[in-house]
Amino acid sequence: MKPKIQCFDLRSRNNAEIHLAGWLLMDPQTVVQKGWLLVEKGIIREIGRGRIPALLPVRDHGPGVLLPAFVNAHTHLELSALQGKISFSRGFRFWVKELLEKREVLGEEKLKAGAAQGIRELKNSGCIAVGEISTLGLTKEILADSGLSAVYFREYLGGISAMPQDMSLSPGKGNITASLAAHAPHTTSPELLKTLKEKTRNAGLPFSIHLAESEDEMEFLQKARGPWADFLTERGIDFSGWGLPVQNPLHHADRLGLADDKSIFVHLLHAGTEEFRFLKERGSHVCICPRSSQNLHGCLPDLPGMLRAGLSPCLGTDSAASAQSLHILDEAAFTARAFPEISPETVIAMSTRNGAAALGLANHFGSLQPGRAGAFTYIPIENCLSSNLSERIIHETSA
């Protein structure tokens, strides 16, 4: 039986207390044996080893490991109610068609109930922050009431007329940051892409877009024809003014001014060394969702190539309609098995520090250090060595 993960969010507490464990994983490269955290008024104030400051209450979590709470940088909670209801076997285009049909049949209340269940799964798996992509606008209030921190990306696709007149980026309630996302360059007009990015840039907010995900997308952008062109035409989307064909999706995105240090490019299955170097130069963030990519497209991103280019990819689970769970350590374990040449410390970084940076939350989450939020996860694994701690965290806590 896998060990139970516990996430502790002390941000609303005013008292001072010590949290002690057999191991502290302050960040993927910094391990402290028999370490402790002093948390006061919701903030980590001090980290130590050995003698504990006197006259403060102490919580001894046990011989396991305290580590930064996890960050799931890319989800679609609105699709959680569709888990297990859509087949992967016919490929991405047919999956999209079936998803749209079954989402419509379920209705708003069932979609909201599924999202609430998805949030419970996130919290039960040690997650503190999430990048939520919302196409229907159903999850903002649910997230605000959840206690999770989130960047709530309201997603748009189609032409400029698809965007409402009032697009003010009012602050979200609770721990929620409200921002905008474009679905993808093969579903969203250049005019709308530029408008969405301009609004987030002016507000200093992160921006998210799916990019270079499918073969249909690549053919459509590079040839302006093919199955995806037919699919858009059937849905009444006129792409004749989109400036196609283009060299590749990333070239198209850069031409529209989308690539900067606030942008998160998701998936990148059909991208290589040149694109990765370009993204590094722009300071852009990359998020991969390997299980979803394998399920829907039968392939994986070039993660080793991303790392060689100096990128710091983060992990997302995508939706419960395209992956087996929203558990970020399930995603981490799959990633570690798929890329055995990549160190477990790197995979942990993708699940914590890198995701916090991509979402603009690095001042709060991603590492255990003074000044960061008092939010951490405890995993009760025993008989560890510093040399195998990250590996055991990944492989002994996943499904």
Write a concise keyword list for the protein shown above.
399 residues; alpha/beta; Urease, subunit C, domain 1; TIM Barrel; 2 domains; 8-stranded parallel β-sheet; 5-stranded mixed β-sheet; 14 helices; 33% helix
Question: Could you explain how this protein is built, in words?
Answer:
The chain is built from 14 helices and 17 strands. Helix 11 packs antiparallel against helix 12 (344-351). Helix 4 links the parallel strand 12 and strand 13. It is globular, with a radius of gyration of 21 Å. It folds into 2 domains: 6-69 and 366-396, Urease, subunit C, domain 1; 70-358, TIM Barrel (Alpha-Beta Barrel). With 399 residues, the protein is α/β, with parallel strands linked by helices.
Show the helix and strand layout:
Blueprint: E1 6-9, E2 16-20, E3 23-27, E4 30-33, E5 35-40, E6 43-49, E7 58-60, E8 65-68, E9 70-75, H1 92-106, H2 108-124, E10 127-134, H3 140-144, E11 149-156, E12 176-182, H4 190-203, E13 207-211, H5 215-223, H6 227-234, H7 249-255, E14 263-267, H8 273-282, E15 285-288, H9 290-297, H10 303-308, E16 314-315, H11 328-338, H12 344-351, H13 353-358, E17 375-379, H14 389-396
Parallel strand pairs: 2-7, 3-8, 9-10, 10-11, 11-12, 12-13, 13-14, 14-15, 15-16
Antiparallel strand pairs: 1-17, 2-5, 3-4, 5-6, 8-17
Helix pairs in contact: 11-12
